């Protein structure tokens, strides 16, 4: 009996080990299947970075080696657009795939605002929750600071950062106009620092990056989504001791260099956790540079305009996408695309359903993978004021601001109100919008005006309500 018992025990041990090995193989297969069909997603969304602030888009300072490599290993989009030239609206559009006016969005939310992104809107995070993605946001929110509008109520599992722009604090150079309250720093729903000081933001870029790296390490075995809206290079500028003066080209250049290192650390984490190949990383900006802050603002390069304007310098932003498993390395795409396309594209590659309401973005998966170079956009709209279709761009008459004297040392400069006339530009031949062709091509003006009028009417008839604090 003892021999039989021993044999039985050995047999049971064998079965147990075999089952463990089988379970392990099944886990590996499940992980491989998940990796094949559920790519990780990271969206890096800089604040006020100009089109020409990084070397893949024309900067010559040599400050962005990690972004240079990202472009070499991924795809550069030359005609990529934000959906608005200011903070709140551009963020709402990215997360929902809808033009901000469709969401009832106009202008930026101030602290203690009674409005925000309606919680009934579907964000990218909520789309990916259908596929059991872990979701996190590290950085600047700016879509309403009431609890019902904050990230954890909009599909994110984790949040670390600021509820709005970090210049909305008592240290604003023009605070006599605004009387901003102290700036809070959140970790989830908890305020961990109720009164952020200038010295506290010196490590802001590094702190946000560390949070993202930690999230990657904790979620390497399941699909995840990281929304990374860095608060910089929006003023006030700040860098860690490591980067202070490192560029020898001023504080703004130091900030760009540190942001680039943040990108490098994210890629390092992906590679060390063996998930680099099947992670889609998008790098872009919310709008053009805030040039009236002078040397504390960025550059739109050969583009006309800047943040807050309807010219290309306000809306066209740098964009690089990298996904080694699917995006051809070293490719360049000049098709019209934008931040509103991210939600439908991500939904498609993750196998998730789109929101049931109308959105304005298009699925550009075929652009990413190099299957086509043709944009799905018949037209791209700059709110109700301008429209681009193909090479042509029409701008309706409107009032704008002209910077007459750039600022200095973190203080804003002087600007005046100006009237912008009806303008038509051929962006293929005149990227700087220097030659108004409205008189030479009245038929194009008529066609684009009709498109813009029809779009505006459709938006008004189908506008969804903005969120209102209860």
Major beta sheet, strand line-up:
8-7-6-5-9-1-10-11-2-12
The level of helicity is 25-40%
Structural classification? alpha/beta
Shape: globular
What's the main sheet like? 10 strands, mixed
What portion of the residues fall into strands of 2 or more residues?
Answer: 15-25%
Care to describe what's here?
- The chain is of the alpha/beta class.
- Helix content is 30%, strand content 18%.
- It starts with a helix and ends with a strand.
- Residues 6-11, 13-18 and 22-35 have low confidence and may be disordered.
Secondary-structure blueprint:
Blueprint: H1 2-37, E1 40-46, H2 65-73, E2 75-77, E3 80-81, H3 87-96, E4 115-116, H4 124-129, E5 134-140, E6 158-162, H5 175-178, E7 185-187, E8 190-193, H6 204-218, E9 224-228, H7 251-272, E10 279-285, H8 312-315, E11 319-322, E12 331-333, E13 337-338, H9 342-350, H10 365-368, E14 380-382, E15 386-389, E16 392-395, E17 398-405, E18 414-420, E19 423-426, H11 442-461, E20 467-468
Parallel strand pairs: 1-9, 1-10, 2-12, 3-13, 5-6, 5-9
Antiparallel strand pairs: 2-11, 4-20, 6-7, 7-8, 10-11, 14-15, 15-16, 16-19, 17-18
Features:
11 helices, 4-stranded antiparallel sheet, 470 residues, single chain
């Amino acid at each position: 009996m003892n021999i039989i018992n021993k044999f039985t025990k050995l047999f049971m041990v064998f079965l147990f080990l075999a089952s463990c090995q089988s379970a392990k193989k099944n886990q590996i297969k499940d992980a491989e299947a998940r990796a094949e069909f559920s790519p990780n997603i990271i969206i890096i969304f800089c604040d006020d970075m100009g089109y020409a602030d990084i070397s893949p888009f024309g900067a010559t300072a040599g400050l962005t080696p990690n972004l240079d490599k990202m472009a070499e290993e991924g795809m550069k989009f030359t005609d990529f657009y934000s959906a608005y030239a200011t903070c709140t609206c551009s963020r709402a559009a990215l997360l929902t795939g809808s033009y901000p006016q469709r969401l009832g969005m106009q202008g930026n939310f101030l602290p203690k605002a009674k409005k925000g992104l309606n919680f009934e809107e579907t964000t990218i995070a909520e789309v990916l929750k259908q596929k059991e993605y872990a979701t996190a946001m590290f950085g600047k929110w700016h879509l309403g600071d009431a609890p019902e509008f904050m990230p954890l109520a909009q599909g994110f599992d984790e949040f670390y950062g600021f509820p709005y722009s970090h210049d909305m604090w008592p240290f604003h150079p023009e605070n006599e106009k605004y009387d901003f309250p102290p700036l809070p720093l959140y970790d989830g729903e908890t305020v961990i620092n109720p009164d952020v000081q200038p010295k506290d933001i010196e490590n802001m870029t590094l702190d946000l990056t560390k949070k993202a790296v930690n999230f990657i390490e904790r979620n390497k075995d399941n699909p995840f989504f990281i929304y990374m809206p860095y608060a910089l290079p929006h003023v006030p500028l700040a860098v860690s001791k490591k980067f202070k003066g490192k560029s020898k080209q001023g504080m703004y250049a130091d900030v760009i260099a540190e942001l680039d290192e943040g990108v490098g650390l994210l890629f390092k984490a992906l590679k060390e956790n063996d998930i680099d190949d099947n992670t889609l990383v998008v790098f872009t900006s919310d709008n053009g540079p805030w040039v009236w802050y002078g040397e504390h603002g960025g550059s739109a390069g050969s583009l006309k305009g800047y943040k807050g304007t309807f010219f290309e310098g306000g809306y066209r932003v740098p964009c690089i996408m990298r996904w080694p498993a699917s995006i051809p390395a070293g490719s360049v795409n000049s098709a019209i695309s934008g931040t509103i396309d991210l939600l439908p594209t991500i939904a498609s590659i993750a196998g998730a359903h789109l929101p049931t309401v109308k959105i304005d973005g298009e699925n550009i998966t075929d652009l990413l993978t190099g299957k086509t170079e043709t944009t799905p956009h018949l037209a791209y709209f700059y709110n109700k004021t301008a429209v681009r279709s193909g090479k042509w761009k029409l701008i309706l008459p409107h009032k704008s601001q002209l910077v007459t004297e750039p600022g200095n040392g973190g203080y804003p400069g002087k600007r005046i109100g100006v009237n912008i006339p009806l303008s038509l530009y051929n962006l293929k031949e005149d990227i700087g919008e220097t030659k108004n062709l409205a008189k030479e091509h009245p038929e194009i003006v008529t066609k684009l005006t009709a498109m813009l009028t029809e779009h505006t009417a459709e938006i008004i008839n189908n506008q969804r309500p903005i969120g209102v604090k209860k």
